[in-house]
Amino acid sequence: MKQLLSGNEAIALGAYHAGVVVATAYPGTPSTEIMENIARMDDVYTEWSTNEKVALEVGIGASYSGVRVLVSMKHVGLNVAADPFFAVSTTGVVGGLVIVSCDDPGEHSSQGEQDNRHFARIAKVPMLEPTNSQDAYDLMEWAFNISEEFDTPVLLRSTTRISHCKTVVDVKGERKSDLRKPSFIRSPAKFVMVPSNARVRRQAMEERITKLQAYVEDFPLNEMLLADRKLGVISDGVAYQYAREVFKDASHLKLATIYPFPSNLISRFAGEVERVVVVEELDPYLEDEVRRLGIAVTGKEFIPIIGELDPEIVERGAIQAGLLQKTSGPAPAPVSPATQLPARRPQLCAGCPHVAAEFVLRRLGFRSTSSGKELKEDEFIVTGDIGCYTLGVYPPLAALDTCACMGASIGKALGLEKAGVPNKIVAVLGDSTFMHSGITGLIDVVYNQGSNTIIILDNGTTAMTGHQGHPGTGISAKGAKTQAVELESLVKGCGVRDVTVVDAFDLKTIESNIKQAVANNEPSVIIVRGSCPLHTRAKSTPYKVDEDECIGCFDCLDVGCPAISILEDEAVIDSEVCTGCGVCAQICPQGAISESK
Amino acid sequence: MMKDVNVLMVGVGGYGVILASDGMAEVGMENGYDVKKTDSLGMSQRGGSVVSHVRWGTQVFSPLIKKGEVDFLVGLEQLEAARWASFLKPDGVAIIADVVVIPISAVTGKIPYPGWDKSKGIISQYTDEIYLVPAIRIAQEADNPRAVNMVMLGFLSAFLELEPKAWTDIMRRRLPPKFVESSVDAFDRGLQEANSVIEAREIKK
């Protein structure tokens, strides 16, 4: 049956048909929909794990019982899960264990760009890569079979353009029925990695890779297409599609097995063509492998190493490198120079519960928005974290000084303090990020006697990735009610004595709580609580500006609310967009903003 | 042999671009095309720009349409249509809803929101065939103010070879039941609008 599936839907369906019994994940763009899709399927245990490391550890445990397991995450999630990833490469598996890493070339929604094909090689874990949704669906069965046959976890790498692209899939199978019953068979030599056992397993890893090297040579999803022999193009992932689009007449080799590398197949292909070219996104991974075989190859000289590719980039590079004739048609060019258009950056939504706290931080911390200047002592340093609130770095909020990886706001705040900067340091992170990896930082602050203030923006969901549950919500991946982990008790249990909870839309109390907390010489936590309006779809009476009272000072624009704009030198509120949170009314010096009657 | 079609649908997060492009992709597949469709949306749940590439063809490789090869630019917001106009091929068609969503940067920053004349000026550097569709009014007439995207699909369908039923069948199958009738109505009205505008143009010529 033909279906139009995104890469993520195809991965989920492929895993389901391959008989996956346990699936775990932490949400992260572009991987999130894999779990969201599996969670809708029967007979699979699914969970949003606390973080990617835990997700993989749960997966490893389940695999040891003999069932098939899928663990999915975004590229940087594999950094978090690296420890168990290397560990399970050493122990091997029992039931098939497939880890999906979704890379984000171009950083559409990420804090960094990295090529996770390298992870396969250093962890000695075989890796497969789809070029469209059909491949993604088909490869899942192969991945589980390889995992079980070779006693190894398998890494399946997707990218944004595979995960978030719908293509036609011929769905052949249905769910396997002869699933293995879970049982744990004691085997310390395999499962208990004391050095004496680990050294034996180390041997097994190398033997496994040698066997896999032979296996991938005949892998059916590596496809050789011989046409014009002047040019032979080797590619993987979505880059294969661009290569086919741009090099229409050339010979092509599509690679699905990225590690180990099918050396003989490559040599055979190189022997059939006059010149070998590699088209790949990000690092010269395939190119280096080809060169290692002593084959002359053109790659990153004409394909950028940074960012997402598209057919235009590949074509332009190919023309510059003399691999392609310039197309005859006239390139469309603007007659006059392109006009400057206002940018449309992502922004915090109307009614967002993060806005008031970030607004107060900016105002209270006497923060100047110009960058590159040394801070005055009375200005706050605000260490930020990963989540919607990161958007508060943009003007007009301009409230954050750092953000790089999950949970790091707290450790960085402590580091700045211990280094001796004179400023007050406030860490800001969300509820889901705090659960993910903020808590270990908080314990460090308590233990090492920091005096930081940590603001947990608790909107009751993992908002940025589309409202997934987390331990604080008490809602499971399948939407069922579970045990919620209570944030206040958790924080107090870590040893923080100064803990307050404040309404996310109450500017005055947020301000007085922050003032008190930063004056305090011990760790303090302020939980700023308010629901995400996109999640709850709550909307109260919208607010309006009294045009007789408005003096056009535009202080209200400083909250950066999408509902507020300027019309004829006065502020106006779009009642369709306004959710009635009332934050702007608390800022207006004239009292000109009130609920519409 | 069916003609290849490249459509770029652009707009703002939360205004129905994805639903419309998903629908169009499904219509293509159900009627025998190879189809690819992908979105560039970054963190657009928060009001950023959204771009969907929809490709119908005999065999489609790249999901992304090359600059200068877009047959139809469907703008669900005027500024976004101007922003992406350079993707049009020289004889491409621009179909733009009269929707204005002013970004915060235009409220607080130095570059103002371009009026329609300015946006049209930019788009006309790439094509002469520009249609500004009164989609807000039409959607209201269909009693479904949010169905601007369906009005635009209806308008677009007038230029493509598949019959209206091919589109409305998918709408009936995929949309929540309570929105089906008003959405189909919005689609039909968009199609009618296109037909009368095209007819008027031909008479003028």
Layout of SSEs?
The complex is a heterodimer of chains A (597) and B (205).
Chain A: E1 2-6, H1 7-17, E2 20-25, H2 32-38, E3 45-48, H3 52-64, E4 68-74, H4 75-80, H5 82-91, E5 97-103, H6 117-123, E6 127-128, H7 133-149, E7 154-159, H8 160-163, E8 165-170, H9 188-191, H10 195-216, E9 223-225, E10 228-236, H11 237-246, E11 250-255, E12 257-259, H12 263-272, E13 275-279, H13 285-292, E14 297-298, H14 311-320, H15 355-364, E15 381-383, H16 408-419, E16 425-430, H17 431-447, E17 453-458, H18 487-493, E18 498-503, H19 507-519, E19 524-529, H20 533-536, E20 543-545, E21 564-567, E22 570-573, H21 583-587, E23 593-595
Parallel strand pairs in A: 2-3, 2-4, 4-5, 5-7, 6-7, 10-11, 10-13, 13-14, 15-16, 16-17, 17-19, 18-19
Antiparallel strand pairs in A: 1-8, 6-12, 9-11, 20-23, 21-22
Helix pairs in contact in A: 1-2, 1-7, 3-5, 11-14, 15-19, 16-17
Chain B: E1 5-12, H1 17-30, E2 34-40, E3 49-57, E4 70-75, H2 78-84, E5 88-97, H3 104-108, H4 116-123, E6 129-133, H5 135-141, H6 148-157, H7 164-174, H8 177-204
Parallel strand pairs in B: 1-4, 4-5, 5-6
Antiparallel strand pairs in B: 1-3, 2-3
Helix pairs in contact in B: 1-7, 2-4, 5-6, 5-8, 6-8, 7-8
What does this structure look like?
The complex is a heterodimer of chains A (about 600) and B (about 200). Chain A is of the alpha/beta class. Chain A contains 21 helices and 23 strands. Chain A folds into four domains: about 200 residues, Thiamin diphosphate (ThDP)-binding fold, Pyr/PP domains (Rossmann fold); about 100 residues, Rossmann fold, CATH 3.40.50; about 180 residues, Thiamin diphosphate (ThDP)-binding fold, Pyr/PP domains (Rossmann fold); about 55 residues, Alpha-Beta Plaits, CATH 3.30.70. In chain A, strands 3-2-4-5-7-6-12 form a seven-stranded mixed sheet, with helices on both faces. In chain A, helix 1 packs parallel to helix 7, helix 3 runs parallel beside helix 5 and helix 16 runs parallel beside helix 17. Chain A is globular. By secondary structure, chain B is α/β, with parallel strands linked by helices. In chain B, strand 4, helix 2 and strand 5 form a beta-alpha-beta unit. The longest helix of chain B has 28 residues. Chain B is globular and about 50 Å long. The interface between A and B is large, with 53 and 55 residues. Strand 8 of chain A pairs antiparallel with strand 2 of chain B, so a sheet runs across the interface.
